[in-house]
C-alpha cells in the first residue's frame, strides 16, 4: 500500500547509479580528494570525478554499505555512485539506499556483485520533496547522536589504555586509604606464583546424568560471556566440556589467544563448565583477581603470548605456557586500588557501548517506519 501523497516509482528514476572509475595505485597523486571504494574511503587523490554531495555504494566485492560524501570525490570502479538524483533530496536518497536490500540482488557465485540495471528496475516508495527533507533531517539528528557517542566511546577506550599503561607499570601511583601515595617496587612473578591454573575439572567418575551450562570458546569475547550458553548432560556433552569454574575465576582462551577471549566469571556463571580451550585462573590469597584480569589486556602479556603461540591454522598456547607468564605486581592493597580505577573505566566504556547499540537499534527501527510511510512527519 502506497501512503497518501507518496508514489511508487523505479529506483532508477529516483537515483541513477553509475559505475565508478578506474584509478590504479600507480596513477594516484597525493591530495585531499577522497577515493571511495565499495568499502568506503580507502585513500586520497588530487583530482575529483564526482561533485558533492555524493552517495556511493558497493558494486563488486563488498555489498550493502552506503556512504554519504560532503566533498567532491573519486568513486572507484568497485562502486556505484549516484550520477543523477533527479531533483530528489540527496540525503534522503542516501537513507533510502541504506534501507535497501542490495544483497538480494547480488550474484550468488564467486565474488559478490550487483548490476545497476537490476537495481534501477526496483520500485520504491517516494514522498514529496518537503517530506524527503524532513525525514533526512530527523535521521541526520540520530546520526549526529551516534557519531558523538562513538567519539566518546573511542576516547574512553583510549583513556583506559593510557590508565593501564600508567597504573600497571607503576608510572602513576595512587593514594591509599589514608591519602598517602603508594610506594615500593612492583615485583616480578610468574602466573603460577599468584594463581591456581585449571584447579578443578570433571573426571571420569562424573555422574553421566549431571546437567550443566557449558561455556564454549565461541561464548567468550573480550571481557564478555554470552548470556545464551547451551545446556548439556555430561554423557552427551562435548569432550572439551571439563573445566569447573567459580565466581571470581578468570577465563583465558588458550586457542587463538590473540583474539583476547578473556573474561571474568561472575555469579551468574559460577556453576558452569568451561571448555578445555580455556585456562581457568583462580587467584591465590593475596592476589586481586581484577588486577590480574586487567593485566591480561596489557602489552606485557600480549607480547609474551604472541611469542609463545604455536600453529597457524589453529594458533594456541598450553597451560604450562600460561603458568610461566610473567607479571609485575605491587602489594595487594595497591592492586585493589588499581583494579577499582580500571573497573570504573570499564563501566564507563560499557555504558557508552550500550548507549551506542541502543541508538543504532532505535535509528534502524525509525528508518523502517519513516522510509515506508508507516510513520509520517509534520511538514511546516
From TrEMBL:
One of its GO terms (molecular function) is DNA binding. Transmembrane segments: none annotated. GO terms for biological process: DNA restriction-modification system. Gene3D superfamilies: Bipartite methylase S protein (1.10.287.1120), DNA methylase specificity domains (3.90.220.20). It comes from the Bacteria. Residues 3-153, 244-360 form the Type I restriction modification DNA specificity domain. Residues 342-376 form a coiled coil. Pfam families: Methylase_S. Keywords: Coiled coil, DNA-binding, Restriction system. CDD domains: RMtype1_S_EcoAO83I-TRD1-CR1_like, RMtype1_S_TRD-CR_like. The keyword DNA damage does not apply. Belongs to the type-I restriction system S methylase family. This is Type I restriction-modification system specificity subunit. It comes from Thalassolituus oleivorans MIL-1.
Amino acid at each position: 500500500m502506497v501512503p497518501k501523497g507518496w508514489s511508487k516509482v523505479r529506483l532508477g528514476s529516483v537515483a541513477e547509479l553509475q559505475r565508478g572509475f578506474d584509478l590504479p595505485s600507480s596513477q594516484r597523486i597525493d591530495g585531499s580528494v577522497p577515493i571511495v571504494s565499495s568499502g568506503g574511503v580507502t585513500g586520497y587523490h588530487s583530482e575529483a570525478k564526482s561533485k558533492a554531495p555524493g552517495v556511493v555504494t558497493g558494486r563488486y566485492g563488498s555489498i550493502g554499505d552506503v556512504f554519504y560524501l560532503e566533498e567532491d570525490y573519486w568513486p572507484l570502479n568497485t562502486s556505484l555512485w549516484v550520477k543523477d538524483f533527479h531533483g530528489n533530496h540527496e540525503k534522503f536518497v542516501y537513507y533510502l539506499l541504506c534501507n535497501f536490500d542490495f544483497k538480494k540482488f547480488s550474484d550468488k557465485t564467486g565474488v559478490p556483485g550487483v548490476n545497476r540495471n537490476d537495481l534501477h528496475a526496483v520500485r520504491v516508495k517516494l514522498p514529496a520533496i518537503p517530506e524527503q527533507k524532513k525525514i533526512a533531517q530527523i535521521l541526520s539528528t540520530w546520526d549526529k547522536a551516534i557519531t558523538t557517542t562513538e567519539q566518546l566511546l573511542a576516547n574512553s577506550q583510549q583513556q583506559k589504555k593510557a590508565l593501564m599503561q600508567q597504573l600497571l607499570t607503576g608510572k602513576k601511583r595512587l593514594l591509599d586509604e589514608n591519602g598517602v601515595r603508594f610506594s615500593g617496587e612492583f615485583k616480578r612473578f610468574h602466573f603460577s606464583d599468584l594463581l591456581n591454573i585449571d584447579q578443578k575439572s570433571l573426571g571420569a567418575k562424573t555422574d553421566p546424568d549431571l546437567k550443566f551450562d557449558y561455556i564454549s570458546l565461541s561464548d567468550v569475547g573480550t571481557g564478555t560471556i554470552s548470556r545464551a550458553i547451551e545446556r548439556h548432560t555430561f554423557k552427551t556433552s562435548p569432550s572439551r566440556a571439563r573445566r569447573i569454574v567459580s565466581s571470581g575465576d578468570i577465563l583465558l582462551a588458550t586457542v587463538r589467544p590473540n583474539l583476547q577471549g578473556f573474561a571474568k566469571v561472575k555469579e551468574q556463571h559460577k556453576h558452569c563448565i568451561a571448555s578445555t580451550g580455556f585456562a581457568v585462573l583462580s587467584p591465590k590469597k593475596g592476589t586481586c583477581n581484577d588486577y590480574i584480569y586487567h593485566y591480561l589486556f596489557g602489552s606485557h602479556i600480549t607480547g609474551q603470548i604472541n611469542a609463545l603461540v604455536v600453529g597457524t591454522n589453529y594458533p594456541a598456547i598450553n597451560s604450562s605456557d600460561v603458568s610461566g607468564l610473567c607479571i609485575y605486581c605491587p602489594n595487594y592493597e595497591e592492586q585493589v586500588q588499581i583494579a577499582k580505577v580500571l573497573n570504573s573505566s570499564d563501566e564507563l566504556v560499557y555504558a557508552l557501548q550500550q548507549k551506542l547499540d541502543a541508538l543504532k537499534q532505535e535509528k534502524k527501527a525509525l528508518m523502517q517506519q519513516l522510509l515506508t510511510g508507516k510513520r509520517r512527519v509534520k511538514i511546516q
